[in-house]
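Tutorial handout. Part one gives the primary structure; part two gives the three-dimensional structure as tokens.
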Amino acid sequence: MTDKTALQELSEEEAKAELARLADLLGRANAAYHTQDAPDLSDAEYDRLKRRNQAIEERFPGLKRADSPSDKVGATPAEGFGKVRHDVAMLSLGNAFEDEDVVDFDARIRKYLGLPSGTPLAFTAEPKIDGLSLSLRYERGRLVQAATRGDGAVGENVTANARTISDIPTILKGAPEILEVRGEVYMSHTGFTRLNEAQRGSGGKLYVNPRNAAAGSLRQLDPRITASRPLAFYGYGVGLVNARASPESQSQMLDSLRHWGIRVNPQVSVVSGVAGCIDYSEKIVAIREKLAYDIDGVVYKVDSFAAQKQLGFIARAPRWALAHKFPAQEELTVIQSIEVQVGRTGAVTPVARLQPVFVGGVTVSNATLHNASEIKRLDVRVGDTVIIRRAGDVIPEVVSVVLDRRIGGTRAFRFPKRCPICGSDIVGDADQVVLRCSGGLFCSAQLKESIKHFASRRAMDIEGLGSKLVDQLVETGHVRDVADLFDLDLEVLLSLERMGEKSARNLLDAIDHSQNTSLGRFLFALGIPQVGEATANTLAEHFATLDRLRAADQSQLQAVSDVGPVVAEGVIRFFSQTDNQQVIDRLLAAGVIWPDKQISVPSDKLAGKTFVLTGTLDQLTRDDAKQRLTDQGARVTGSVSGKTDFLVAGADPGSKLVKAEELGIPVLDEIAFLLLLEESE
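Part two.
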């Protein structure tokens, strides 16, 4: 490997070997990107290698190969499609990576055209969408052929597929007799997300990025598949045109395309000189993250067609156009280790520690791997070469693994069974996608959130204990778990920043008031995994006392309505942990109390019945209605289904009423509901 060797230090033999290696590497990368829609190099790495190849050729012109990547445009058309020879070649563009390159581009054009430096020169500028180039041939206004760029001279016939894209009109109004429209097929961010979600659900191929999703969707042998994909199209130019009169500039041509019925990017602008080009680039960079689609730069084209004709072409690119590339949002790097972080809510997130790499305008050394399911999907391992992506302020993420570069002896990553912060069990939800630390009451990583939840209105309802105050109490070390709240005194509170005596006394009063609660509220406040407010109240009603609940086994818990094996296991695990037991005992010792209920025998009339509440009740709050129903053995759920026995509809009931009527479920207004409660009590 000599690609790290300084250019001036290369011997002729080393240069020859490296050019051979680069031709092979870039050739395979072209095939993977253009033909297989499965890139194995990031765009930045590809550009770097191509610039390296060009630099070596410039130093050793006699070594330039017949298959030089410098002369390649796209890739050979794939088998399975008919071939189309372009009447006008679909060439590539020269690239600029720095503002100085744009200055040089402008200077070269002015010199070639013989223009003095101060002479105005107009350019058409537009975003460079990261999609798939497509040529559309219209004859007498009707779409007769669509072809990919292919190798620039010959492309793939994708006419049947292009006809399924709603943005591509099959008939143009007022167009020339023969018109070839050049443009970009792309997929929006929303469409890409929706497609991959559908693919994941059906076990289909997941796409790396929107560009590859667009290319893979357009190049389907079955047009029905293409039709189901969220593809879009923008026109950006023309090839062959047979017309009596043609526009005189690129901007006029784009206006004509709009008039004929072709979608043109609304961000297109005519700018003056190199300053106008750079100002436009900066404007697009500023809104890049707000665009609905991926771009990797902007394109400048000399606006005048007469000047374009005079400038002509070089090798594989026009002299009159330039792609000004933005800092790459994707890069190649190596995973040095995989660690897990515990978030504020107990969620355990795997994080890849990376060999530092410059991407998206910053140096990145960490990237999220999201969850256990994503690690399994990617099969990412320590030592892997990966493509990472960073867009704007988004946390960098691992996009894919470059399997061709995987070293031997790597092992699949296994999640730890215990929290690295507090040592508690790590548990999963029903589908094991989200893993969480079970030590919510004492794990320091989630202490602040557990306190905020404990104090919230529907839990212990400690008025005045807001987020900023919780942060202060934890950061000063005055509160190490929720039981410490009941040990706070006036002196401690007054020592806090911006805490006055009146506010401090009000908070202490609120803490004292919260001690008198209900078992359901207390259980909800504890933050037991999988136990929300409704389940907490159901458990309280069923077991009546905390001691009975703490002693319950799996079968006893699963006998409770709405408690399945996952919830039951979570409850048992929570109450079996010594640290949790100690915090609960301290809370009880601090005076937290609720009236014990006798296990009630529900009336026969409502026992086992399922109710759904919707709309606004006048005489009861939603909580009161739930409580009266559960007191009588009924179940209250949030959605209407075939298992619902009654829908209670107050004012403004919404869609639940419609669904209940469709299913033939009895609907009770508030008066009928109150009568039913009275009769059953």
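Part three, for discussion. The chain has a mean pLDDT of 87. The chain has five domains: 7-71, 83-325, 330-405, 440-599, 610-680.
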